[in-house]
Amino acid sequence: MDHKRLLMTAAILFALPICMTAQDFDDCFENRTLRLDYVFTGNSSGQSIHLSEALSGGVWAGRRHSLDTVCLEGNGKIEVLEKGTGKVLYVNSFSTLFQEWLSEEEATKTDRSFENCFQVPWPRNPVDIRVSLMDIRGEVTASLTHPVDPADILIRPVPVPPSSFRYLLRNGSPAQCIDLAIVGDGYTAGEIEKFYADARRAVEALTAHEPFSTLKDRFNIVAVAAVSQESGVSIPHRGIWKKTLLKCHFDTFYSERYLTAGSMTAVYDALAAVPFEHILVLSNTPVYGGGGIYNAILTCSADHPTFPKVLVHEFGHSFAGLGDEYYYDDGFNPMYIPEKEPWEPNLTTLADFSSKWADMLPPDTPIPTPEDSIEKENDVRRIWNTIPEETRQRLNGHLGVYEGGGYLSKGVYRPVQECRMKINECKDFCPVCTRAIRRTVDFYTEKAE
Ligand SMILES: [Zn+2]
């Protein structure tokens, strides 16, 4: 009796939907997308998760292998669980703006709610969905488990908007490639060609950097022309508010340059016509800013001169889960604690350094590694263009365990002195970030390193 027939017989005998292994995509799932919209609410001392709506989308763009494994831990996860057994049929990890807000002082004074949308493959049978949020210790602080029956008549098809789209890079089917969707905010109907030109510049910027240049054949990139009522996006510190489709605005958590999309459901609605796994929102503005949240969203202003650099840095966050290698020590609450190893592949607290770049270190490297005199005595960012290429390469490529990173000058360590994830001036990712990006691409496309 072949494997599938045995499976069917078992299902009939026990009247339970059974998947023999979570690796068998076709046994458990259809080539279709289940979108789940949630509202995350609460404050710094307590959070909760509420299901807002289940929707039915187009073809499944995500992976069809390693379904019960995450690439990186992230700050939260969504799991599809087999009814009755609780076996994980699919899992994906993510981070959220909501959890960033929890470390802000405001979260000690008020409750807030944040929209979050996720996509999972369409289950063939009734399943349970579990959404969990973790704190900086990796402990679950909020969790919601709810049933989804794929035959439920209240699962609404996502309306496909009238917007047009163009593929800027196409290397295979959504099943084979990583699908990145670019959507614009603050582009009026008369600015659609500008949007496509900006999206092309985004693709050029991403694919100009290693390791993306050599890995670009693993990606599909589609630009979706969404139309906003007004041109430009909201800039609260200048008193400017615009009517735009995705409600992009600066001053997120009162940080001038922190640009985010105000409505995740609007972003997902705008992308309904295309298969996608990763999202890049281009804001039609020359004001400096951006933001990247792991497996959630990347937002970037399209017309600032540093656009290509900011974009690549933020893609490091949103796609590969890279942490910031800079530090300034003025955060309200630390995001990293000594006893917990960060899940970001390019930061360590030394709690479990063997899981990081210990295998890449030259023998006898001192931990922590002393900085070069040029790094110690200067604000390297300001003098980067004046220092010799050889020195730049050493600062970017000489691996160690340098103290300072993840917004903290003490207790968090980074792999090199200067990296694409530390300063905009440095063109290249460090060797640790490069390996992390390669591993992420391999994870999604199932190709060995
Ligand atoms: Zn790095």
| Average pLDDT metric | 92
Whole-number count of domains: 3
Note the gap between the termini. Answer: 36 Å
Model regions low in confidence, pLDDT < 50 over at least 5 residues: 1-22
* Shape-level CATH architecture of the largest domain: 3-Layer(aba) Sandwich
Q: In which range does the helix fraction lie?
A: 10-25%
What structural category characterises the helix and strand content?
A: alpha+beta
Distinct ligands: zinc ion
Q: What is the N-to-C order of secondary-structure elements (H for helix, E for strand)?
A: HHEEEEHEEEEEEHHEEEHEEEHHHHEEH
Please count the helical segments.
Answer: 11
Strand line-up of the largest beta sheet: 9-11-10-14-16-15
The value of Rg in angstroms is 22 Å
Number of strands: 18
CATH class division of the largest domain:
Alpha Beta
Proportion of beta-strand residues: 25-35%
Label the overall shape: globular
Could you give a quick summary of the protein structure above?
This protein has helices at 3-14, 25-28, 97-102, 192-207, 212-215, 264-270, 307-318, 373-377, 380-383, 389-397, 431-445, and strands at 29-43, 46-56, 76-82, 88-94, 112-123, 127-134, 140-148, 156-157, 165-169, 178-185, 219-224, 248-249, 260-261, 278-283, 290-293, 297-301, 402-405, 408-414. With 449 residues, the chain is α+β, with helices and mostly antiparallel strands. A hairpin with a 2-residue loop joins strand 17 (402-405) and strand 18 (408-414).
Structure notes:
The protein has 449 residues and is an alpha+beta fold. It has 3 domains: 20-157, Peptidase M64, N-terminal domain (Immunoglobulin-like), CATH 2.60.40; 165-318, Collagenase (Catalytic Domain), CATH 3.40.390; 326-336 and 367-428, no CATH class. Helix content is 21%, strand content 27%. The chain has 11 helices and 18 strands. It has helices at 3-14, 25-28, 97-102, 192-207, 212-215, 264-270, 307-318, 373-377, 380-383, 389-397, 431-445, and strands at 29-43, 46-56, 76-82, 88-94, 112-123, 127-134, 140-148, 156-157, 165-169, 178-185, 219-224, 248-249, 260-261, 278-283, 290-293, 297-301, 402-405, 408-414. β3 (76-82) and β4 (88-94) form a beta hairpin. α4 (192-207) crosses α7. The model is unreliable at 1-22 (pLDDT under 50). Zinc ion binds at residues 325, 346, 415, 419, 421, 429-430, 432-433.
